[in-house]
Amino acid sequence: MAIEGVLETCLYADDLEAAERFYAGVLELPVVARVADRHVFFRCGGAMLLVFDPARTASAPGEVGGTPVPAHGAHGAGHVCFRLAADALRGWRERLERAGVAIEAEITWPRGGSSLYVRDPAGNSVEFAPATIWAPQG
Amino acid sequence: MAIEGVLETCLYADDLEAAERFYAGVLELPVVARVADRHVFFRCGGAMLLVFDPARTASAPGEVGGTPVPAHGAHGAGHVCFRLAADALRGWRERLERAGVAIEAEITWPRGGSSLYVRDPAGNSVEFAPATIWAPQG
Fold first, then answer.
1. ipTM summary value
2. The pTM is what?
3. Which residue of A70, A91, A129 is in closest CB contact with B105?
4. Which residues in chain A are contacts of B64 at CB distance < 8 A?
5. Domain B8-63+74-134 has CATH 3.10.180.10
6. Rounded to a whole number, what is the distance in Å from the CA of B94 to chain A's nearest CA?
7. Is CATH 3.10.180.10 the right assignment for the domain spanning A1-61?
8. For a Cys-Cys bond, which of A106, B54, B98, B132 suits B73, CB 3.0-4.6 Å?
């Protein structure tokens, strides 16, 4: 009966083509669905990253089989953190820099592990980290 | 080297106490960290749901060990979908209604499975669904 995990994580972007170049092109997340100027959806492990243009979705809900889908749409920088294997962080730093993506910060956490932070083209804060940064403390 | 999944999903809320009553009290997600008027963090399966007050985080970054944490903070309704076992949806509908949380929509998806939609106290769109709604189509 308990919630098992997060199935969909959302970000918002005015330029969905730029978002796709970043999340599919640089981060290599597979595109699952795309509606021009409305949304682009990516598979990310067992879950989904959904990127919407809030100009389209905040006021005009979608529709599935005649049922309106509840509206949402935010403005301003959101945040997501992607889980990496701990030994993949250095390779990702190099890959991001090769792609011209500036590393905004690198932080070492008290629970163990480090995070890399960059910005997506919409200005959302995108972090890369191993699961150890949230390991339960005993 | 590939991204393994989403480790942190974020929402924003002006009233973090109301957010905690909803996510911890009604949804029973364990609270992992809390800074009054700034953020409250919940464990959700192997990942984290982070709720921030954008009035505090959009302009004033946090700090870890002397390193500024990149700022973010969005306004307007965000969205998250929580993964449930397929047979848990009916029980969740009853639990939410008992807690006084209105069901905004229930949608049956073409890939299989149904979603329930409610709003959190900040107006974010919160969905409950089984993983089948995003099952790869062959």
1. 0.95
2. 0.96
3. A70
4. 107-110
5. yes
6. 12
7. yes
8. B54
